[in-house]
């Protein structure tokens, strides 16, 4: 008669490339990190003892946003156990408006991305956004990424067609309906809330082409992004926007 044998479930260690989106202290010396990972999407990982001096503390000093990391973790729960953490490239340092723009992108992903759902296209767009922030033209970088994020969430902005399926005309006015699109209207509404959701066809077509040199187009694009993101962000203010305002004062 065979002896009963115990089967131990082994937890696989995952290693992935990614970026730190947000971190917060946990207990005396540990940190809970939100990462955007190339193969795993947004993942929360607990790294123990990284706020201490010594070897573990050296690992903690790698936990800086915008620089690519090699992240190893395991665990079956939503909060993973961190293992190895290594630099995967030269560090990237954003300052001033670049920094607060990057923090804004990070906060959007922490708030809107579901955990452990791969988003490889968005990961590539984020890498591009970080490098583009270093080169300036912040409006273009932010607006492009916001649209990519909305598309990833299943709410792609279609700017060249109205809700009836007709091409957007540069000489017409359109009312934006969140998660539906742009409806042709023949006169501006008197209601101030509706008025805020109106866009000229000329501006919509320029936004579609990412042409933000005209300040009126840049302002319209920013307004549109806020309207499109608002239903998904809810009532809680974005901390990065508040920091940006304080920096600009």
What's the layout of helices and strands?
Layout lengths: L13 E13 L3 E8 L3 E7 L7 H6 L8 E6 L4 E9 L8 H17 L7 H15 L3 H15 L20 E5 L3 E5 L6 H4 L2 E3 H8 L6 H19 L5 H10 L1
Parallel strand pairs: 3-5
Antiparallel strand pairs: 1-2, 1-4, 2-3, 4-5, 6-7, 6-8
Helix pairs in contact: 2-3, 2-4, 2-8, 3-4, 4-7, 6-7
Features:
NA-bd_OB-fold; three-stranded antiparallel β-sheet; DNA repair; DNA repair protein RecO; OB fold (Dihydrolipoamide Acetyltransferase, E2P); 249 residues; RecO; five-stranded mixed beta barrel; DNA recombination; de novo design (two linked rop proteins)
- Roughly how many Å is the radius of gyration? 22 Å
CATH third-tier fold name of the largest domain: OB fold (Dihydrolipoamide Acetyltransferase, E2P)
Task: Report the CATH superfamily of the largest domain.
Answer: Nucleic acid-binding proteins
Biggest beta sheet attributes: 5 strands, mixed, barrel
Distance between the termini: 80 Å
What's the total helix number?
A: 8
Number of strands: 8
- Unreliable spans: 1-9
Shape category: elongated
The CATH class label of the largest domain is Mainly Beta
Based on the structure given, which CATH architecture of the largest domain is correct? Beta Barrel
Lateral strand order in the biggest sheet: 1-2-3-5-4
**Coarse structural class:** alpha+beta
Number of domains: 2
